[in-house]
UniProtKB/TrEMBL annotation:
One Pfam family per UniProt: ZnuA
Superkingdom, taxonomy of origin: Bacteria
Alphabetized PANTHER family for the sequence: HIGH-AFFINITY ZINC UPTAKE SYSTEM PROTEIN ZNUA-RELATED, METAL-BINDING PROTEIN HI_0362-RELATED
Family statement drawn from the similarity comment of this UniProt entry: Belongs to the bacterial solute-binding protein 9 family.
Family annotation (InterPro entries): AdhesinB, Bact_metal-bind_prot9, Lipoprotein_PsaA-like, ZnuA-like
GO cellular component: cell envelope
First and last residue of the signal peptide: 1-22
Protein's cellular compartments: Cell envelope
MF-aspect GO terms: metal ion binding
Keywords: Metal-binding, Signal, Transport
Gene Ontology terms: biological process: cell adhesion; metal ion transport
Organism of derivation: Loktanella fryxellensis
Protein's name according to its UniProt entry: Zinc/manganese transport system substrate-binding protein
């Protein structure tokens, strides 16, 4: 072997471990943008992660594409919220021939029942509120489930996932303190608000806010005229201060309710999807901060 060939060979050998590393990265598909950010935080450099439902898109109403089936068929792990949030996922997994492991992020939270609104027509969604990510206490459980699931699929990365999860949990704790400070100035009699659909029950339970919505748990259910009339009466009777738009729902109904009742439109909340990278809710923790800051700004006297 001449010197030049020898150099080429050693260069190739040095490059090999990097190649192997790139191939060893776990391929992870997540169902929606909020979960995608959490999984990226825990998985770090050891995973390649992509979401099916993008920023500002509505996961309730999502129609999977052939490209989604292809990305699932190549994936090692899929991460879903669960509790019926992604009603389309089981069929997609089956159609794709996906043979990896499924992490259900919501497993183990204290689920909220979803009481039907009076006069609200029955609908075929789950009995529990699926929007678990809307409380930081639940997010800690999501993070633990994600770290455990990634470690099971990639045992060599277990220490990395645990360390990433710990660092992320510390950020969650810091954000929790910020949210409590933001809401401290909102008086008890100004803590009931209106949004389009019932996405914020866990946030309300965590911070002493009451959310009313003309649409039920899922954006798939239509608000009936009776529901809207009941809500308008309630807004007037209880002197509800503000109504809020959501990034994933049509704003017309809430705008109409605001016009009829004289309630202020307090801003846009990010319910079931992050904003794009340049928006105010580009990550899960930015989303939580933006939502609570928007609520507090509108509700403070
Ligand atoms: Zn929703």
């Amino acid at each position: 072997m001449n010197r030049r060939n020898f150099l080429a060979l050693t260069t190739a050998l040095v490059a090999l471990p990097h190649l192997a590393l790139a191939q060893d990265r776990l391929t992870v598909v997540t169902s929606f943008s909020v979960l995608n950010d959490m999984v990226s935080q825990v998985g770090g450099d050891r995973i390649d992660v992509a979401t099916l439902v993008d920023a500002d898109e509505d996961a309730h109403m999502y129609q999977p594409t052939p490209a989604d089936a292809r990305s699932l068929s190549d994936a090692n792990v899929v991460v879903v919220n669960g509790l019926g949030f992604e009603g389309w996922m089981d069929r997609l997994i089956e159609a794709s021939g996906f043979a990896g492991s499924v992490i259900v992020a919501v497993d183990g939270i204290a689920t909220r029942d979803m009481p039907e609104m009076e006069g609200h027509a029955g609908h075929d969604h789950g009995a529990f509120d699926p929007h678990g990510w809307q409380s930081l206490a639940n997010a800690r459980i999501y993070v633990a489930n994600i770290a455990q699931g990634l470690s099971a699929a990639d045992p060599a990365g277990a220490e990395v996932y645990a360390a990433n999860a710990d660092a992320y949990l510390a950020q969650i704790d810091a954000t929790e303190a910020e949210l409590q400070d933001l809401l401290a100035e909102v008086p008890q009699d100004r803590r009931t608000v209106v949004t389009s659909h019932d996405a914020f029950g866990y946030l309300g339970d965590a911070y002493g806010l009451t959310f009313l919505a003309p649409q039920g748990l899922s954006t798939e259910s239509e608000a009936s005229a009776a529901d809207v009339a009941t809500l308008i009466t309630q807004i007037r009777a209880e002197d509800i201060a503000a109504v809020f738009l959501e990034n994933v729902t049509d704003s017309r109904l809430v705008q109409q309710i605001a016009a009829e009742t004289g309630a202020t439109v307090g801003g846009t909340l990010y319910s079931d999807a992050l904003s794009g990278p340049d928006g105010p809710a580009a990550t899960y923790l930015e989303m939580m901060r933006h939502n609570v800051a928007t609520l507090a700004a509108a509700l403070k006297p």
